[in-house]
Specification:
4-stranded mixed β-sheet, 6 strands, globular
Length: 227
């Protein structure tokens, strides 16, 4: 990029790489190999937050991290035997349909180093999972069950380690995802149970119309035609 950019509201390749646990030299090498048209030779890798240039860099970083440094963390999540409840859940049904529509297989329950929950009594903050992550598309998909938009008293009033009720914590974490993912170059698409046919309890009826709804919402991300 030409010109000088102030430190406020900008980020560098080194800062971005460290946020993902990637060696900055490896990231800069990957950026050079990408031959981004907007970057001049020997110019600093410094861009404004939320800019198209930052998103270009983030897509390269996500692919690099997913293939190397972040892989052990992803494998740790994957190697836990999936519970029957999760694999048969409405969330799994929706993500399965997203995989079919996009022609790609999502990394499920992926955790980003920059997406952290509230600190507990010990001060520790855990990485928050996302329902589905498609590294090649820079896309995160979340499925919101009834408790994300409607009050469920038994669950919402239960206290959490950070001292706030679970309902308030869930709303905070949803806000973190909406705010932080785009800042780090990831698009976020949220599917709500109310978009689909469902029972009074909020359980999906799982009809053929579900796929049509998902196809319409993801039309900008479809890269492989599926039948």
């Amino acid at each position: 990029m030409s010109g000088t950019v102030g430190s406020e509201g900008v980020t560098t390749a080194a800062e971005m790489a460290r946020s993902y646990g990637v060696d900055p030299k490896r990231f800069r090498a990957a950026l050079r190999r990408a031959s981004l048209r907007w970057h001049s030779h020997n110019e600093r890798w410094e861009v404004r937050l939320g800019s198209p240039e930052q998103r270009d860099m983030e897509h390269i970083l996500v692919a690099l991290a997913s293939a190397a440094n972040v892989a052990p963390a992803v494998e740790q999540v994957r190697t836990r035997p999936p519970s029957v409840a999760r694999t048969s859940s409405d969330e799994a049904w929706i993500i399965d349909l997203c995989d079919a529509v996009l022609g790609k297989k999502a990394i499920r329950q992926h955790r980003f180093p920059f997406l952290l929950g509230d600190a507990g009594a010990s001060g520790r903050r855990v990485q928050l999972p996302v329902d589905a992550f498609y590294p090649e598309l820079g896309l995160v998909i979340e499925y919101h069950e009834r408790q994300h938009t409607g009050r469920v008293r038994f669950f919402d009033d239960h206290p959490t380690v950070s001292g706030v009720p679970r309902g308030e914590q869930r709303r905070r974490y949803d806000d973190y995802r909406r705010t932080l993912l785009p800042l780090h170059g990831c698009a976020l698409v949220v599917f709500d149970y109310s978009e689909f046919g469902h029972t009074r309890a909020g359980r999906l009826l799982r009809t053929d119309r579900d796929r049509a709804i998902i196809t319409a919402r993801l039309r900008d991300y479809v890269t492989v035609a599926t039948v």
